[in-house]
Amino acid sequence: MTAGPIVVGLGEALFDVFPERSILGGAPLNVAVQAHQLLAPLGGQGVPVSRIGNDELGKRLQAELADRGVPLSGMQIDPEHSTGTVIVTLHGNEPQYEIVEGVAWDFLTWSDELEALADQCHAVTFGTLGQRSEPARSTVQRFVMRARQALRLFDVNVRQHYYDAGVLRQSCEVATVVKLNEHELPIVHQALGLPDVSAAFHDEVRTDRMVEDIMAGFMLDAVALTRGARGTVLYESGQKVEGQIVSYPAAERADSVGAGDACSAGLIVGMLMHQPVQEVVDLANHLGAYVASQSGATPPLPKELIDRAART
């Protein structure tokens, strides 16, 4: 057991393959790595839970996590399937993804170790991509249902054809918080079978109505809506709180890969630290903006952001 919070990133672990380099990635792994950076000074941990191949990329993944002090206890080794990869093409600094199928994380299986971690974690984040096939889908659902004591953040991440109405509904049912972006909101609202919101409403009002429908329909504690450079809005307890819009100077070869995952880490850590809602959203915005200014999904975080996370 650790002295501080344990945040689990549950689902895909992979490498984002750019034309000139390969970078550790996968949304839940990114969240776990960033949460670990924020929580380690407080005695907490970010724990990625996934399955990787017994191959060179798998060994590299383990080495990179170990170098960062991130626990490897949630990593299963698959003797038959390769470590996941995503082919990333950048248009400007906006990424497009080709996600390789039938890889190790699709075969994530239940174990005694996962059961124990589900019982002791303080938060878990999971998405649609990690549930695209069996047995991973059943394992993810079983873990989240087991972790009843935890903050459970469902990060929608609608990617290509790797989602359906069933997995969206199941995931909203077991979540306490849902995070999605402006593009995903109407897709999810319709897929969940919620009543149409009149087009006569102003765009902002329509957005608010759709978010409120999802919150009420699934008795959620909060919904986080991300809006790119305009930052995040958090709907919680009858409040609608917009985060401070921030930006950081762009580093060489900057890309936006992992910015949304850093935002998720900020939301989770801020909530676990019982920060006021405004500070939670501001932390999420700062983390997302910083990662968007850097190369890769999990750059080392500056001290001022780590210190911001420790505020209570």
Mean of residue pLDDT?
Answer: 92
Kindly state the percentage of residues in helix.
25-40%
Number of strands: 13
Stretches where pLDDT falls below 50 for ≥5 residues?
none
**Major β-sheet annotation:** 9 strands, mixed
| N-to-C order of helices and strands | EEEHEHEEEHEHEHEHHEEEHHH
**Physical arrangement of strands within the biggest beta sheet:** 5-4-1-8-9-10-11-12-13
- Indicate the radius of gyration in whole angstroms: 18 Å
Could you say which overall geometry the principal axes of the C-alpha atoms support?
Answer: globular
Per DSSP, the total helix count is 10
Structural class: alpha/beta
Beta percentage is 15-25%
The end-to-end span amounts to 22 Å
List keywords for this structure.
single chain; 312 residues; alpha/beta; nine-stranded mixed β-sheet; four-stranded mixed β-sheet; 10 helices; 22% strand; globular
What's a concise summary of this model?
The chain is built from ten helices and 13 strands. It is of the alpha/beta class and 312 residues long. The strands form two sheets. The chain has a nine-stranded mixed sheet, with helices on both faces.
